[in-house]
Amino acid sequence: xDSILPQLxxxxxxxxxxxxxxxxxxxxxxxxxxxxxxxxSLMMLGAYIGWSIMTRLPREPEWFVLGVIATALLTxxxxxxxxxxxxxxxxxxxxxxxxxATFGVVLVLQDVTLWLWGPVELPLPRGxxxxxxxxxxxxxxxxxxxxxxxxxxxxLGLLWLLMSRTRWGTLVRAATLDREMVAALGVNxxxxxxxxxxxxxxxxxxxxxxSLPNSSANLNIDLxxxxxxxxxxxxxxxGSLTGAFVASLLIGVLQAFGIVLVPKxxxxxxxxxxxxxxxxxPNGLLGRPQTDARExxxxxxxxxxxPPELRALGVAALLLAVAxxxxxxxxxxxxxxxxxxxxxxxxxxxxxxxxxxxxxxxHAAWFGIGAYAAGLAMQWIGAPMPVGLLxxxxxxxxxxxxxxxxxxxLSGVYLSMLTLAFAQIVWAVCFQWVDVTxxxxxxxxxxxxxxxxxxxxFYWLALALSVGGALxxxxxxYAPYGYALRAARDSAARARSIGLDVQSLRIVxxxxxxxxxxxxxxLFSYGKGSIFPTYITISHSVExxxxxxxxxxxxxxxxxxxxxxxxxxxxxxxxxxxLWRLVLGAVIVLLVVAFPEGIAGAARRLWLRxxxx
Amino acid sequence: MPVSRxxxxxxxxxxxxxxxxRAQGTAPVRIGEINSYTSNPAFxxxxxxxxxxxxxxxxxxxxxxxRQLELxxxxxxxxxxxxxxxxxxxxxxxxxxxxxGAYLSNVGLALGEYAAQNKKLYVGGEPLTDxxxxxxxxxxxxxxxxxxxxxxxxxAEEAAKLPAKRWATVSPNYEFGQSxxxxxxxxxxxxxxxxxxxxxxxxxLGRVDAGATVQALEAMKxxxxxxxxxxxxxxxxxxxxxxxxLFEKRNVVSLLTGEPEYLDPLGDEAPEGWxxxxxxGEAIEAPAHKAYAADYRRRFNAKPxxxxxxxxxxxxxxxxxxxxxxxxxxxxLVDGFRGARFDTPVGNCEYRAVDHQxxxxxFVGKTALRGNAGVMTDWRYxxxxxxxxxxxxxxxxxxxxxx
Lengths: 613, 403
Prior knowledge:
The complex is a heterodimer.
Chain A: H1 4-32, H2 39-54, H3 61-85, H4 97-117, E1 122-123, E2 133-136, E3 139-142, H5 143-165, H6 167-177, H7 179-184, H8 189-211, E4 216-217, H9 221-236, H10 241-261, H11 266-280, H12 294-297, H13 308-327, H14 330-353, H15 364-381, H16 385-407, H17 412-432, H18 434-437, H19 455-478, H20 480-490, H21 492-497, H22 502-528, H23 538-551, H24 557-576, H25 580-594, H26 598-612
Antiparallel strand pairs in A: 1-4, 2-3
Chain B: H1 5-26, E1 29-35, H2 41-60, E2 69-75, H3 80-93, E3 98-101, H4 105-118, E4 122-124, E5 141-143, H5 148-160, E6 166-170, H6 175-191, E7 196-201, H7 210-220, E8 224-227, H8 232-244, E9 251-258, H9 260-263, E10 275-278, H10 287-300, H11 306-325, H12 330-337, E11 341-344, E12 347-350, E13 362-370, E14 373-382, H13 391-397
Parallel strand pairs in B: 1-2, 1-3, 3-4, 4-5, 6-7, 6-8, 8-9, 9-10
Antiparallel strand pairs in B: 10-13, 11-12, 13-14
């Protein structure tokens, strides 16, 4: 086949583009330990800024280079602002909490970009040199793609020089290995973090500007890019530049040949690669085992039963919730039904994330599996709602058991990323396998039986299942199993030494969380009457994280409060302004800065302060 | 005749009736519209502008049934589950008489399902999926725009006139792309049994790896290419295709590429000679369209996009349907919308009684470069009713409960 060489080169060009984005992300993560969701937004800004600069410049190559460099510098500056204004304030917050802040930034930047540049995609007109090609093995190969192939290794080389030949680079490497030790030796962490963030943002801007000759500046770049970048960074090993480069090559080339051999599954391919790599190399290709951040070894406070006052408050809220159908109109009843679903969704994530210590970035997968289990049961065997509601947690639990077997070997961010990969695979199957799942068009006609058709009855059903589920999960936390699970989280080694089987404890946690979440998915579907792949998107998984973290990890009431606040806030904002993303994002950032331990955590602290003082 | 209490009550009742009618007559007809304003602004913002313009024009002429039109819009953020929730808000809280909207097919289907389960009329403007009025059609759902089938049908007809025998397809891998390719293959093979399909490319929606896709298509050595990519995917594909010479000496037939929403961003790289469906915009000479386009430009200082036409026609179609029904009661509305005729800037159309599909037509033509921008040339307008299959075929597709 004479097309092998051009296809390989195309893959290499793609790999270079991937590396440019991933390198910035991996450097930022290595030093600051922040999973930066807004990295894709920085690349999007790079593309837009690059467009604005370069459409004003002549189309010759030297001007192009100048424009690209100016773009990278400007994006780096934006990175600095971002770090100083937002992220600096949340470094002390618990791990993963910064992720929330960066997601808030994603939302804000979406609206800011739309407002500044408008809704239409903006392609950079290509000068003649950008359209040139070279004849390779009988095919025309774009000159610019050849340039891209060269840029990847060039950037890697420059970064390597920077990291190994400068004092700043040495400090960055030291901080990547052990940032507390670096701080203890008197290195100014603030400047280090700010400059690292600037470098990462600059690389994202560079990637955005260099993508312009092949594509356009558009509003979808942020979320498209961020998943690819996550995959590359994780496959390569977090914090490892060379690893990111190798992973880019692997994925870029596989992608190029995958398109020829298996054109229909390219979307899944990337995540399959990531899953396989993580199963065999739990720290990525070139990653080192993470040194535990020192704060993390201090055991999280033991969750105690709520004080009587809080219990009384909870009972009052429950009574109010039961009486709600007599108080509010039909629409608010559906919002409350959604809130019940959200509570179960959030509480189930809290179960594996708080006491279980396994932060899932793909919790929507269980939600979707539950929904599709109910929907397919209805479609294939005409199963009525009670059967669907029973099937959903069973199927989700069984799948969770299979998946759990892989995932419990990992820890920290690698574990989170494997859950993300799994959710993306589930999503892709639902989205692309039209014959079975109905694809994008979803499953329709999920009708509630006569007795539950009334909105009030269905609300009470949702309330009963959600509160019942939450109480059951709470009960498990105070059972011996719950204590064992928390022991495994706080110190796996000590837990093992007293004879606890850490891995099965964790698998059971995943199964329970998955089953409860599956139930919430089925409940949601019967509320809406239809099921779509959008139930399994990354943004839905992030919503679960938002609810749990906004509410607070340390209390059982946390995810419940988070779910209520988030559902209410989102509903009000969406209906009152076109700029809801901007407001929601800003509110999230503010909440993160104001309540680093979550709303419930802050309330608990204030409460305790009053008691103990 | 003794004056009984009953008589007095009856008389006062009938005396009061005109007042009651008047009271009802002054209440506006409320249209609750849901669309992807934040996730697909390029299409939906011009669409919303034109809807507002149409509402003002209808109201200036005295409204419908002597009542004014009122439009309430909501953003579904591209998520069908949000659309369903907001439909509940519009129906139960805002008491709208008609639901409308949707850009994405899945949002359209979700709203159709809501309409069927809650017995409320829903008029979809933009969603293209065939199943909305066929396999998943229901009594309460109508759809304005020409469907995937209709767009693919006219392109298959044009493709059959070409000498090309070896065809390759490239399409985003989801329901819209899959049914576009399915119909094109089926209809072209029916007209030209000598045609073979030599390969398919299925990039994921929104993340085409354009270089590799173009290279793979090149390796198939086709005479003709059928493309369903749109948006940023299309931009990437065209750039790589231009540089790598994929389109030279080949016929390309392409769905929706002639819409300014997708053609304009290609700028001076817009391909020449592709056979496309789309919208020629201000090049349309028909007096009704000239007046509409001039109004739109005056009002918004922008050129009318394809989305504008859909939004404008949608409001006019709803006004006509409500007028024909003579009431805003849902069951009467369904009967009124069936067979309702309405004027659009491109011609008179109808909601077919057999499947609730609007007969808004399709523009088909060739792409060309004028200065630094792509335009449609040699275009013609085909009435939607000439693109749809026979009534018996359609009846077989629709569930019995939908009629």
